[in-house]
Amino acid sequence: MSGHPTRVGEHEPPILLFEAVVKRYGNVLALDGVHFHVNRGEVVCLIGPSGSGKSTLLRCANGLEAVDGGRVIFEGIDLVDRRTNLVQVRQRIGMVFQHFELFPHMTALRNVTSGLRTVRRMPRLEADARGLALLQKVGLVAKAGQHPAELSGGQQQRVAIARALAMEPDVMLFDEPTSALDPETIGEVLSVMKRLADEGMTMVVVTHEMDFARRVADWVVVFDRARVLEEGPPARIFEQPVVARTREFLSHLGWHADADDAGDGVARRFAPRERETS
Ligand code: ADP
């Protein structure tokens, strides 16, 4: 391979830049000098063992966590700078959590429109029209009047995605969006995310869904022990990881990650971890 691989959006400044980011929780070093960037229009997947700092990094990306060192730059704005208005900045960053965090007393439609009504002060009719269009986009317009408890986990997560999209964010952050779901509803959430990616949404996705990362990501960042182990296009990370610990991590998940292919550069998965469907 020659030179640096071309990345989506590399011709303009990154939308998100992490520079030597350090985060501690008491004695635990959750991020130990993390450095990478996300370009506009890219899907960047963060993978790596549990506890390696991926979710913490995502929370630092929208100022939900204060960092102890380094800089987080979003659209040229330093989130670490005390003068930055984080409330304003966060409106341009959509966040989707593992546990949906919908308002239980509100219908799906109200969950989607609540930010538009309270933060944007959008008139109800206009907010409802946008909310219904977004529910349509995630395939749930028929469920607009249902409450979260009446929806499956996958449906709740799709409502949460519609809610995040309502504010027309410049970037969407996904924190293990399918890890709390029943296996049969994981696919519907991943396909909504894939469609968003195809539309050009900038996305940062913490995921254990390696098939998704391999197929959908433009760029993969591998975390281990509070640091970035390596980063690169998915084909390189999954088929020719440079760092031994990346190979170990992937092979634990059933990825065959060495050169033992048919010469076509396509990695062969062995013993894929099948989802139990019965
Ligand atoms: P990952 O997302 O890769 O599983 P996390 O970012 O959740 O990793 O966690 C990184 C480290 O920080 C872990 O050791 C975890 O226990 C610790 N940690 C994360 N959040 C907190 C918190 N709110 N308080 C204390 N420790 C935390």
Protein traits:
278 residues, alpha/beta, six-stranded mixed beta sheet, four-stranded antiparallel beta sheet, 10 strands, 32% helix, globular, disordered C terminus, binds adenosine-5'-diphosphate
Strand content: 15-25%
Report helical residue fraction: 25-40%
Report the mean per-residue pLDDT as an integer. Answer: 90
Number of helices: 9
Main sheet overview: 6 strands, mixed
Q: Rg, please?
A: 19 Å
Q: How does the helix and strand content classify structurally? A: alpha/beta
Question: What is the string of helix and strand elements?
Answer: EEEHEEHEHHHEHEHEEHH
Q: Note the gap between the termini.
A: 44 Å
Query: Total number of β-strand segments?
Result: 10
What order do the strands of the largest sheet run in, or round the barrel if closed? 6-7-8-3-9-10
Poorly predicted runs are: 259-278
- The general outline is globular
The ligands bound in this entry are: adenosine-5'-diphosphate
Question: What does this 3D model show about the protein?
Answer:
The protein has helices spanning 54-61, 86-90, 108-118, 124-137, 153-166, 183-198, 210-216, 234-239, 244-252, and strands spanning 16-25, 28-38, 43-47, 69-74, 77-78, 93-96, 171-175, 202-206, 219-224, 227-232. The relative contact order is 0.15. Helix 3 (108-118) packs parallel to helix 5 (153-166). With 278 residues, it is α/β, with parallel strands linked by helices. Helices cover 32% and strands 22% of the residues. A hairpin with a 2-residue loop joins strand 1 (16-25) and strand 2 (28-38). Residues 25, 28, 30, 48, 50-56, 223 line the site of adenosine-5'-diphosphate (ADP).
